[in-house]
Design a protein that fits this description.
The structure is a single chain. This protein has 223 residues and is of the alpha+beta class. The protein has 3 domains: 52 residues, no CATH class; 84 residues, K homology (KH) domain (GMP Synthetase, Chain A, domain 3, 2-Layer Sandwich), CATH 3.30.300.20; 64 residues, Ribosomal Protein S8, Chain: A, domain 1 (2-Layer Sandwich), CATH 3.30.1370.50. It is built from 6 helices and 9 strands; from the N terminus they run βαββαββααβαβαββ. Strands 1-3-2 form a 3-stranded antiparallel beta sheet. The chain has a 3-stranded mixed beta sheet with strand order 4-5-6, sandwiched between helices. It has a 3-stranded antiparallel beta sheet with strand order 7-9-8. A hairpin with a 6-residue loop joins strand 8 and strand 9.
């Protein structure tokens, strides 16, 4: 679809989900779009009257984006203030690895605090990433190109996902039967989409709705 000068608003259970829906409809990548967070999601009382995330997305036309390292400087200050307000003793530092800029959080004394900051299956870490994404967007720095990590959890998880995707891909090549992986967020699904094509003769597709959206790996369909 040609985006032209179109601007759309979309909602979702998370900012990430709303952005993904809007980008998909406009046929844009995150780097090609101007993204404005109109409303952050909020949970309602006892799950009732929950407020969804709302984003406004339009094609970027000649706008200047901050470089990842510049975004990281602002994110570092933001996280230091947030961690201080939470009463967590931690160090925050900027690192670059394999073309990705990370803002890493390291516990100074209590590892349990860092475990709480990661959360079950990384859910709290993803919520922290959402806060950082919103901070970068509100600062007018363009799409967030910085990843927050705590005690290298995200980096270890990335390696696990890549290995799992390639193992599943080899199994699909042997059996010819598609494999559906566990539900993942958009960032983790991209790791799968990037890893599987390294094994010739396979393709991937995201299916389902959040929070159960997952990647299916299958043999490449010959036209």
């Amino acid at each position: 679809m040609e985006a032209g000068g179109m601007e759309i608003e979309r909602s979702g259970g998370s900012v990430e989900e709303a952005i993904e829906a809007a980008l998909s409809e406009l046929g844009l990548s995150e780097q090609e779009a101007f993204i404005e967070i109109v409303q952050e999601p909020r949970s309602g009382f006892l799950g009732l009257r929950a407020v969804p995330a709302i984003v406004r997305v339009r094609p970027a036309q000649g706008r200047v984006e901050q470089a990842p390292e510049d975004q990281a400087e602002g994110v570092t200050v933001f996280l230091e203030g947030l961690l201080d307000a939470m009463g967590l003793d931690a160090d925050v530092e900027i690192n670059a690895l394999e073309g990705t800029t990370y803002v890493d959080v390291w516990g100074v004394q209590d590892d349990q605090d860092m475990g709480l900051l990661i959360g079950k299956h990384g859910h709290t870490l993803e919520a922290l990433q959402e806060l950082v994404r919103g901070h970068v967007q509100r600062a007018g720095a363009g799409p967030c190109r910085v990843l927050v990590d705590v005690e290298d959890y995200r980096k270890r998880r990335n390696k696990q996902i890549e290995a799992r995707a390639q193992d599943a891909g080899r199994q699909v090549k042997r059996s010819g039967k598609p494999i559906s992986l566990e539900p993942m967020n958009a960032y983790e699904r991209k790791i799968v989409h990037d890893a599987v094509p390294q094994l010739d003769g396979l393709e991937t597709a995201s299916e389902g709705e959040q929070p159960n959206r997952r990647v299916v790996i299958r043999r490449l369909r010959r036209g």
